[in-house]
Write a structure and sequence with these properties.
alpha/beta, 297 residues, globular, 17 strands
Length: 297
C-alpha cells in the first residue's frame, strides 16, 4: 500500500483519526493531522503524527496540501446553540484545487443520513431521508466531497465504540436510562478497529464515488443492548423508560440518536473491503475492552 499512498492527511485527528494515523504509520506512510489545540497537537506528535494546529482546513499551508496523496475528513459538524452546520461547505472548495497529488479521499459520515426506516434493513441504495438537522448536514457534507474531489468515497458510520468510548463506567455507576420503544428500535454499532481496517482496505482498493456503510453484523435494539451489556459486566440493570418518560428524562440529543429505527446492512463492506470483521458484534468486542484501563463501549 505504501507505494501507492505515501502521505495521508487526517482532517480532525480525533478518536478514529488517531487510530488510523497509527495504522498508516505502521505501514510506512507519512501522516499529517489537523487539530485546533496545541495540547492535542503535542499528544499527536508523541504518537508520530505531524500535527498542524489550524482553526479550519482553509488555513493549511499550500505546500502541505500539494504533497498529500490521501485525505480523510473526520471533522464534526459545527454547532451554534441548537443548530448544526457542515463546515465543509465553506473550506472544501478552497482546499480541493490545492490537493494536486490526491489519489484517494474518504469522508466519515453517519448512518443517520438515512433517517427512520421502521426497522427495515438499509443498504447504500436506500433513499436518504434524514429526520434530524444532524443527518441533513452530514448529507450536505457528503455531497460537497463528491462534488469537489473526484477520488472521494463516503463512509457512513454506525455508532462507534472501542477503548475510551465509555458506556461501561456509566452502566457500572447505575441508573443508566434507555427507552424501550414499541416496536423495538434497532441501533447499530462498529468497532473503531474495524473502521480503520475498512479505510485502509479502501485506500488499497479505491473506487471513486463509492458509498459504504460501516456497521457490524449485529443490529440490536438499544434497550436490549444495554441490558445485555450490563449483565455481561455485572453492572446494575438499566432503567427502561417508556417513550413518554424518555421525552421527559433524556436529552434531545440522546433521543435523536435512538429515535430512528433501522438495521444497517454491511453487505457491501463485506463484499468489497472486509470479508470478515474483527468484531462482528458487541459481544466479541467486549473482552478486549475489559482489558483496557480506559475500556469503553
Amino acid at each position: 500500500m505504501s507505494d501507492k499512498i505515501r502521505h495521508v492527511l487526517v482532517l480532525g485527528c480525533g478518536y478514529v483519526g488517531e487510530r488510523l494515523a497509527a495504522a498508516c504509520n505502521a505501514k510506512g506512510m507519512r501522516v499529517s493531522g489537523t487539530t485546533r489545540s496545541q495540547e492535542r497537537a503535542a499528544e499527536l506528535a508523541a504518537k508520530g503524527v505531524e500535527a498542524v494546529v489550524v482553526a479550519t482546513p482553509a488555513d493549511l499551508p499550500d505546500s502541505l496540501l500539494a504533497g498529500v496523496d490521501a485525505v480523510v475528513d473526520s471533522i464534526p459538524l459545527s454547532r451554534s446553540g441548537q443548530s448544526m452546520h457542515a463546515p465543509q461547505l465553506e473550506w472544501l472548495p478552497l482546499i480541493a484545487p490545492k490537493m494536486t497529488r490526491i489519489k484517494w479521499a474518504g469522508y466519515l459520515s453517519t448512518t443517520g443520513v438515512y433517517g427512520d426506516a421502521d426497522g427495515a434493513w438499509v443498504d447504500e441504495s436506500w433513499p436518504c431521508n434524514p429526520g434530524s438537522p444532524r443527518g441533513m448536514e452530514r448529507l450536505r457534507a457528503e455531497q460537497a466531497w463528491l462534488d469537489s474531489v473526484a477520488f472521494s468515497e463516503i463512509f457512513r458510520l454506525a455508532g462507534i465504540y472501542g477503548a475510551g468510548r465509555n458506556i461501561l463506567d456509566r452502566l457500572r455507576a447505575g441508573d443508566y436510562r434507555a427507552v424501550q420503544w414499541q416496536p423495538p428500535h434497532y441501533s447499530n454499532r462498529i468497532h473503531v478497529d474495524d473502521i480503520v481496517s475498512a479505510l485502509l482496505a479502501a485506500m488499497n482498493r479505491p473506487r471513486p464515488g463509492r458509498i459504504v456503510n460501516l456497521a457490524d453484523d449485529d443490529p440490536v435494539p438499544h434497550a436490549d443492548y444495554v441490558t445485555e451489556l450490563a449483565r455481561l459486566i455485572g453492572a446494575p440493570s438499566p432503567v427502561l423508560l417508556t417513550p413518554a418518560e424518555g421525552e421527559d428524562q433524556l436529552s434531545p440529543m440522546a433521543l435523536e440518536f435512538f429515535r430512528d429505527n433501522k438495521r444497517v446492512s454491511n453487505r457491501l463492506l463485506h463484499a468489497e473491503l472486509l470479508p470478515e470483521l474483527a468484531y462482528p458484534g458487541f459481544r466479541e468486542g467486549l473482552p478486549g475492552l475489559l482489558l483496557s484501563p480506559d475500556a469503553g463501549l
